[in-house]
Every structure is written in C-alpha cells, then in structure tokens.
# Entry
Amino acid sequence: MHADLFCRIVDNYGDIGVCWRLARQLASTQGWHIRLWVDDLTVFSRLEPTLDTNAGLQRLRGIDIVHWTQTVPDLLPGEIVIETFACTPPPAFVHRMQDLVRPPVWINLDYLSAEPWVEQCHGLPSPQAGGLAKYFFFPGFTQRTGGLLREPTLLPARDALQADPAARAAFHQSIGLPLLQESERLISLFCYPDAPVTTLCQALAESPTPSLVAVPLGVAPQLQEGRWGALRIVRIPFLSQGDYDRLLWCAHLNFVRGEDSFVRAQWAGRPMVWHIYPQADAAHVDKLDAWLRAYPADPIIHDLNRAWNGEHAPSRFAHLLTQALSSPSWQEWQNSARSWSDTLADQSDLAENLAAFCHALEENRS
# Structure
C-alpha cells in the first residue's frame, strides 16, 4: 500500500511526534510505502537532526518526506490518504484524488480522547465534494476506537531497562543526568508555560523524600538548575523520541503534556500527571475529565491532575502532591499506573487497527 500522510504542526512537537511515529510504524510493521507531508521542517528537525530543512523532497529512515508549501508538487496520490488532526490536504491534491478512476481511501486521523462520543463516531464516513468520502478514525482507550500507537518492541524494551539498574545509570549519563542519590526520586517535567511549576518545586523542596527533576531545554525557563532543599533541578537536552521514551521509563513520576508524550507516559507504566492542551470554551476540561474517569487511580490523583491544569489554587496543588507522594498513596499510584498500562497493552495498537480498517474499505470497494 502507498499512503500519503499529511501533518500541519500546530502544537510544537505533538503533531509531528504522532505523525513521525505513525509513519515509521506503518512502514516497518505493515510494509506500507509512506510519503509524509510536513509544513514545518525546522520543528521536525528537532526530532530528526539529519533532516534537510531546505529540501522539497527527501527520504529519511525509509520514509519519503515532502515539504508542504504553498506550491504543491504534482504527485499522484497513493491508495491511502491520511490527514492528521483535520489538517485537510491541499486543494490541488484533493482534485487529483477526485480525478482518479479508483479514488484513494481518505482518513481523518483525529485527536485522542476518552470521551464516550468517540466510540460512536469512530469509523463513520463523511461525504466530500466530488464524490469522495472521508472516514473518521479516532485514537482511543477502548476496543471500539482506533487504539494507541505502540511499536511491537516497545514494552519488552521498557521492561528490560526498568529491570536493569546498570543500563538505567548508563542512560542517565548519556543524557547528562547525574547519578540518583539514595531514595531520590527521578521526575521528568514537560509542560506548557501556564503550569504551576514554581509551586511544584516548592513542594518538592520541602518533601521528606529527595527529588531530581529533569527539565528539557526550553521548558519552564523560569526554573534554574541547582539544589533547593530536597530538590535538585537539572536541565537536559532535547531528546530523540527513543531517548524520551527511555527517560519516561526511568523516571518515577512523569509530568507530560499534549498528546504524544501523554501516550508514551502511559506506556511507561509509571505515575504521571497530564497537562492537557488548552482549548477554547474550556473543551479540554471535558477531555481531561473523560480520561480521569477511565484512569484507575485514587481520587487524590484525579484532583492532582485537575489542579495541575489550573482548576484549583496553587496551594491546593501543593497539598495534593504531598498526599500523592506519601504512603500509601504513592504505592497505590505506582500499582495503578502499571495496571493501566497492562490493560491498554491487551488491545491492538493504532497502526495495526488503521491498516486493517483501510484494507477492509479497499476490499469492500472491490
């Protein structure tokens, strides 16, 4: 199968993060020939430094990459066209789709949500101009959705690293993290600018258990490296997707944001706090609540996530964090996080489900 995958970068690295993982997985596990259209190669190059930001067309890691500009190259659409997050292919490309004797299967890979309506809309067609049909494909947390991206080797690699202290120490050194001190918690921090990071650090500094917080360059710029009470803050470089996964596996607690890191933190099987991308009319609050209803953690953890997203005063967040990191809540949180990851792993992954859905549509048209 030849597939065109379209990506407009809106949320920094979230959009391209999802698309780049999906492109590689469809190529490696399904044998598809993928052509990835991206409008911002500069942002993309942070994930793939060998990317040529001046090239209109290039091939990288087995994927053809097209720079999606105002001047659209006249390329024949593949059998599958996937627009991510309703970005809509350029009109000239859609016209080429309409002119084909056998138009491609057109997929809108939408945003991830645990809201109940997702199951009802997943897989539905939407008639388009020129006789085309676009099918909604929703990632999700149940068998009645498209599932979550998960490479076949992901969880075995996670388990191997989490079981090997020497390998974890070597990884820490490779990304510039110091050795953890006795009983010190490793916390990864990836958030949007409005997160209450100062309150977080004050609470950790006063905690009876020491913490090492790893902060990528560019995130929470107000935080300075150094030691404050029981807290150490260390800046780390921008990581590749594989190294970021390993950081999540190594950390005892992960603060993540958006969609891509949110999913990867769940595969880490470690306690996590999600900073959801804010939307107009507070639509993101419904998405957060829907996920929390599914996430099998103590109500303290649910309130902690809401407080991190601004639903409570900073002092409330600090109080909840102290409770969450104290026994027995901390042990229960660790157990529920791993149980949640194991439950999700029982389901088929997104790339497998998407390929099966597209093949079924192709067969029905034959």
About this structure: Residues 257 and 275 are 4 Å apart (CA to CA). Residues 14-30 form the longest helix (17 residues). The two ends are 15 Å apart (CA to CA). The chain has 14 helices and 14 strands.
